Structure formats: structure tokens, C-alpha cells
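Subject: for your reference before the review

Hello V.,

The reviewers asked for a structural picture of the protein, and I figured it would be easier to keep everything in one thread rather than splitting it across files. Below is the amino acid sequence we used in the manuscript, unchanged from the supplementary table.
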Amino acid sequence: MDQERYRPPGRRMRVLFATSELFPLAKTGGLGDVCAALPAALGTLGVEVRAILPGYISALDGARRKRTIAVLPDGGRLLLGDTPDTGLPVYLIDRPELFRRAGNPYLGPDKRDWPDNLRRFAAFSAAAATLALQGDGAGWQPDLVHANDWHTGLIMAFLALHGAPRPCGMFTIHNLAYQGNFPLQEARALGLPEALLVLEGAEFFGQLSCIKAGIRFADSITTVSPTYAGEILTPEHGAGLDGLLRARAADLTGILNGIDNISWNPAKDLDLPAPYDAEHLGGKAIDKAALRQELGLDPTAPGPLVIGVNRLTHQKMADVVADALPMLLEQGCQVALHGQGDRELEGAYVAAAAGHESCLAVRIGYQEALAHRMQAAADIALTPARFEPCGLTTMYAMRYGTLPVTRPVGGLADSVADVDTGGSWGRGPGFLFAEPTADALAAAVGRAGTMFHNQAAWRALQRRAMREDFGWARPARRYLALYRQLLSSEGRPCSQTCGRPWDDRSATLHEVEPVAA
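And here is what came back from the structure prediction:
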């Protein structure tokens, strides 16, 4: 790599952080939280980070100080603004026909995938790669591109196929189960390079796999917990890509995600009726009473308030939670569930609540403020999973003194210890169960419920959980170390041609559509 071109002496390291979600501009789950908090934490370490995000309606409405810095084909624009909370600079790819739509980033109002998702995220990836290779026209160009999940996997391919010199590329797998697989004929119709559409590229069982493109072409690969990094090397959890991941194991690092300790702070959370901290837990009882009133739950019930704030999916064991509800109610628990996902599971939750409104509340959808109020009010959080790359919801629960019932898989194994086995100080107390069954889940809740009635012991566990530091300081330092390693190593992959040069996609943003419409 021509280091002078990308980082003159004395200039801060520049990173372009590519993502399909960025809180508060766009969020459907933990990806949006991570991709907002990590760049902010890196900024405190001296890295000059700018994010790049599709120009969804919510992003265009929410970003501050937007200005057009380049004109895209077909009337689109490259905008630069910043986020309203942390002031993170963010580029927005404003292609109205692709991104200004009702629904969420991936699904229409009917909760079905947008049929042109490959076109949408290929265009986004091509624009991001072009920006990385040529700069933004105003003097800013990254040393390294950090791409996240399948929606940005093609960026790694576009950079590598361009050849040297180019910025280095890091690709983070947030969830290997979501792969962005599309028919090869659809990829060819978009004019994607043939080097992508073969087994040695991103072909995957007769389809184009965007996540395989990220894994295959990135210079460095990370995922969101050490245990998950090991799990995805196995056939059981590798989702068909374990062979490629084993071949690239030397380039794979697991780093446990952090949480935003400013947004998720019960002592200063403006969404709560009463703030509290580990030393003064009285506000938590006030929040519990307020949530019970809000949801129509019996205010005098003596048992624990159990919440579930999760996507309603097979991965998150929403089916098992539904099966376990009668047992939890029989134990004397009050249960409040909030989330969205599989339509059948949504219906099962709503049906379960019918006739049990005083002890079981269900709110379908996702509201950030309600999620905060539920974490603050609850005694126990259901965060089980069949597999779990990281488990941010579990960290949020412990931050708010709400003790998790969960399984020791993926990042959950790295962040939660069972109270009956002790565990090392600082990992936080939890109630773990092994088998992904309703009986096992209910038994774990039963253990928690028994301890709940010993209020002195319960308060001690709450304080222990709240004192754990799940912030971004340590993870950010680990990412910075990887960035430095990539940018300083001799003979680094980003200084070489990684596959056939992508010569037919070298025009500027102003001249040619990077991916044919």
C-alpha cells in the first residue's frame, strides 16, 4: 500500500465504518447499538471515524447538519452529516428509489424481505467502496474500512478486486445465520464481477453469498465474542461456512461487544420514572410499580416480574418461551414480553395473554423507551438462545440489576456465570440452563424465583451484576490494536492485489453508477 496516499505522517488514523444500522438513525436490533457505540469509543482513542449508512427515511430525518458533497447517478446524493447524540460524522447514500421506503431497513410493511435487497445493498456497498478508494471529494479518505454483517460484505470484495493500493478491510460477523444469499442470475443482472460469482469468490451452493464475500475478501475478520469465534469454526454453528472460516482462522478474532454505558445507565436514564444505582436501589421498586400500572399487571403480586425483550425468532427460543409461559405463571411469576419477529410466534404470545392480563402482558413491536422501562422494572430477564453471537440484551439487564435466565452459548458464555457455581468476580450472576427446552427454562426461573424471596441475597446479586463493566473501553482498545496491526504489518494483504483487479468499476461517483441499476 502507498502509505503516503492513505495516511500522511502525523495524521490520525482514519476509519470508514460501514453498516446497515446505526442508532439512533436506524435500528432493528443490537447491530444498530454496536455500530453507534464502537465508533464513538474509538473516537475517544484518537481514531478519526466516519460511518456510512444507507439513506433511509429515518436516517435522513434524524441526521444533523446534512450537506451534499457528491452527486450520485440517477439523482442520488452522497450526504455528510452527524448523529444527534454523539455527533459521529456519517455519510448517507441517498438513493430515493432504493432506501426511502416505509418499513424497516430490510423488510416492507408486510414484514417480507424487500425483493430488491441485493440491488439495494450492492449499490450501497459499491458507493462505500468508491468513497474509500477515491475519497469524498472534500479531502477525506480512510486508511481502513470496517464493514459489518452481510449488508456490507460486498465492500470487502470490491476493495480486494480493485487491487493495490487500497485501504485495508476488516469485516465483522455479527450473526453468521443471516448471510445475504441471492440467485447468481440476479447478481449477474446487476453487473457484479464474475470473480465474485465462482466458488473461489462468493458463490455459495449456487447462490451469491454476501457474507461469504466479506469473509473471503477481508484482510481481517472479527466476530462479537471469543466463544462464538470458536463455535463458527464447527459444522454445528458454521452455517455452511465453517470450512472457509477454518481456512481463515489465523485472521479471525473474537472480541466481546460492549454496551453504551451512557444510553444504558439506570442512574441517568430519562425514560425511567425513578433513577437508581447499585448503592441506592429504591428507584427500581418505583419503576416496577409504574410498569405494572402501564401494562395492566396486578400491582400486589408477590412473585418476581419476569421480562422478555427480544426478537421473536427460533434463535432467541421464542417458541420455547411460549411453551414455558404456563409453568412460569404457575410459579407465581408476572411476565411482560416485548418484541417482534415471526408472525406465528407473535400470535402465540398474544393468544397466551388472553385471559391472563393481570399476570401476563404482551407488547408486539419494538419501542426503545419501553425496553428501557422494562429492563429497569424487572427482577428477572429471559434471554435464552439456541445460539448467541454476543447477547447485548443480557448485558443491558445486568446493567439495570435485572438478573438473566439464559443458556451458556456464544457471548453469553463469556459474560454470564451461574450463581450456583460462583464464577469469577465481575462476570455477573445469572441462572443458566443447558437444554433448550421449556422444562429447563422453567426450572431455571424457579431457581431464580426461590432466591428472589431472600431479599438480602437478591440485592447482593443485583449489586454484583450492576458493578460489572460491560462498557466499550476494552473492546475498542482491542479493535484499535487490530487496526494498527493491519496498517503497520509488512506485506499486508491490502498492499497486494487480492484476485482480479476490478478495472471496470474505477470511475468516480460523479460519472458512473458503481453497480448497474
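For the response letter, the relevant points are probably these. The longest strand covers residues 64-71. The two ends are 32 Å apart (CA to CA).

Happy to draft the paragraph if you're swamped.

O.
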